[in-house]
From TrEMBL:
The keyword Lipid biosynthesis does not apply. GO terms for cellular component: membrane. This is EamA family transporter. Keywords: Membrane, Transmembrane, Transmembrane helix. It comes from Pseudoclavibacter terrae. It is found in: Membrane. The chain crosses the membrane at residues 20-39, 51-71, 77-94, 101-119, 125-142, 154-173, 179-200, 212-233, 239-256. It comes from the Bacteria. Residues 260-296 have a biased composition (Low complexity). Residues 260-309 are annotated as: Disordered. Residues 297-309 have a biased composition (Basic and acidic residues). SUPFAM superfamilies: Multidrug resistance efflux transporter EmrE (SSF103481).
Length: 309
């Protein structure tokens, strides 16, 4: 999440030259090129359903990237991050099946304190952009789970990121290409490494090593990281009420994650088993009972997998 918020904060430096949409576009284009070089996708990896899931994931990634970039052009980074976090929070509430109804109310109070609508100082268009990015993030989570169930490792990124770049190109390339300079292109390449390339790949590795609850709790802290990054790099000093509101959103995120859950499904791969990590020899029943075998594995994309970590 540090890479995500750092990349977003540094992206604002290109807004004056390329605009928010152009900055989001150049990040996705370079990220797509990097992912294709690193992953080297093969047609045999994908089934029809997994490929379509990757395409939808790419559309969600593009919307999330462009809309959030538009949002931070109008409202503070910490506020935008807290509003965008309502997307995964909503998904977690739906998973809780009625066990987490208190947390959305706490989050709603937090949003009101964050935006302080009674002052008239918040840009309503920026708020709408952030909420639209939240909706894209919710779709992103659901699609990531589907892709993670069918594909191993970072193979899904080899389709989703290029699809996101193509969609962003249709929207922003015609107006941005005439504004490009070598300096802006190099800056865009560096930003693409910070976000989304490195965060997405690190996130997949993290999900293999920590529990879903731990991952969800850490992700819930992202608005706080955004607030600190905005303060240090962008000199965005929040008032007391917005800080309290952001804290309430974080508490709601942690609370609903503890209440929610997802029944794991066994991942299916389009590639032969020999192409993946060899499976160990199944233990005996006595050994399995002693070691606690049968514990449900962590699923990829439990809460989030761009703008990104």
């Amino acid at each position: 999440m540090l890479f995500v918020q750092l990349g977003l904060a540094l992206s604002t430096g290109l807004f004056e030259q390329l605009g928010p949409l152009g900055t989001g576009w150049i990040r996705l284009v370079f990220a797509a090129a990097l992912v294709l070089v690193i992953v080297r996708p093969r047609r045999a990896w994908f089934t029809r359903s997994s490929f379509l899931a990757c395409v939808v994931l790419g559309a969600a990634t593009s919307g999330m990237t462009l809309l959030f970039t538009l949002a931070i052009d109008r409202i503070p980074l910490g506020t935008a991050a807290a509003l965008e976090f309502l997307g995964p929070l909503a998904v977690a509430v739906l998973r809780s099946r009625g066990r987490a109804l208190l947390w959305p109310l706490i989050a709603a109070v937090g949003v009101v304190l964050l935006t302080e609508p009674w002052t008239g100082n918040i840009d309503p268009i920026g708020v709408l952009y952030a909420l639209a990015a939240a909706a894209c993030w919710a779709v992103y989570i659901l699609c990531t789970q589907r892709v993670g169930d069918e594909l191993s490792g970072v193979r899904g990124l080899a389709v989703s990121i290029p699809v996101a770049a193509v969609i962003a190109s249709v929207i922003a390339a015609p107006s941005t290409i005439p504004l490009l300079t070598w300096e802006a292109a190099l800056a865009g390449l560096g930003l693409a490494v910070l976000l989304p390339t490195v965060p997405f790949m690190l996130e997949i590795q993290a999900l293999r090593r920590i529990t879903a609850a731990a991952y969800g709790t850490l992700t819930s802290l992202e608005p706080a990281v955004a607030l600190v990054i905005g303060l240090l790099l962008l000199h965005q000093v929040p008032g007391l009420l917005p800080v309290v509101g952001l804290a309430l959103v974080i508490v709601a995120g942690i609370g609903v994650e503890r209440s929610a859950g997802r029944t794991p499904t066994a991942p299916a791969s389009a590639t032969p088993a020999s192409a993946l990590i060899p499976a160990p020899t199944p233990p005996t029943e006595a050994a399995a009972a002693a070691s606690g075998a049968g514990e449900a594995p962590l699923e990829r994309g439990e809460l989030r997998t761009g703008e990104p970590a």
